[in-house]
Amino acid sequence: MASPAPGRARSAAPGWPEPPAPVLDPVEAVAATGSLTELDTAVTGCRACPRLVEWREEAARTKRRAYLDDDYWARPIPGFGPEDAALVIVGLAPAAHGANRTGRIFTGDPSGDLLYAALYELGLASRAEAVRRGDGLRLHGVRITDPVRCCPPENRPSPTERDTCRPWITREFRYLRPSARAVVALGGFAWQAVLPVLAESGWQVPRPRPVFGHGARAALPAADGGPGLHLFGCYHVSPRNTYTGRLTPAMLTDLLATAAAAAGLR
């Protein structure tokens, strides 16, 4: 079955909100928003990367055996969390049968199960379980986002797709500029992707650029007279890291606790 035409949004499944007008130019679309809420709505209509559009919608058609009865979201995934978040967690991209299915970032897969359990333990989430968009889960002072908003094949977005998607997260950080005090980059991809975003959003990135590692930390002074930012590196919460013991629940919780303290949340 062929994907919808490039300028046509996939219709909403039962229970999902209707998609907004299709977006083919993220630069133009983000400029038309006036708030983080408007940005979160607009991004769900993005169709700027044909390969990613085809892949996310193919995943929703073929499904995984465990989710054959599920209606997939199959659209770009907005950030999740309050508009005045002090701590921002940055991942890579949605999972084809996780967020692409459930409609919310890091929801419906083992990575999200670990992340939300850690946030709950620290008092930063209303509960440990994340089921799907609209399930009532709330974050306290924390926002989670991705530099790439559609699930990519093999979890590997191309450099072009990353750069095409960048206006969404850049505008997101500009809206978060008054409140953001700390950022946790989950993995080297997130670390490298977020550095130019932060440089465009009011903070000075040190030279030479800080190097990623678990527990890496960098101070980014304000470039606009506002407050500075603390950047932390954390191994990604993917099964590849967690099942091998490279990242344990205790390691994740400890790092998030340190970042939350830097953000003034603890």
TrEMBL record:
Pfam families in the cross-refs: UDG (PF03167)
InterPro entries: UDG_Type-4/5 (IPR051536), UdgB-like (IPR044147), Uracil-DNA_glycosylase-like (IPR005122), Uracil-DNA_glycosylase-like_sf (IPR036895)
Organism: Kitasatospora paranensis
Top-rank taxon: Bacteria
Assigned protein family: Belongs to the uracil-DNA glycosylase (UDG) superfamily. Type 5 (UDGb) family.
Gene3D superfamilies named among the record's database cross-references: Uracil-DNA glycosylase-like domain
Keyword Metal-binding: yes
Uracil-DNA glycosylase-like domain ranges (all copies): 78-256
Keywords: 4Fe-4S, DNA damage, DNA repair, Hydrolase, Iron, Iron-sulfur, Metal-binding
Entry protein name: Type-5 uracil-DNA glycosylase
Region (Disordered): 1-24
Keyword DNA damage: yes
Compositionally biased tracts (Low complexity): 1-15
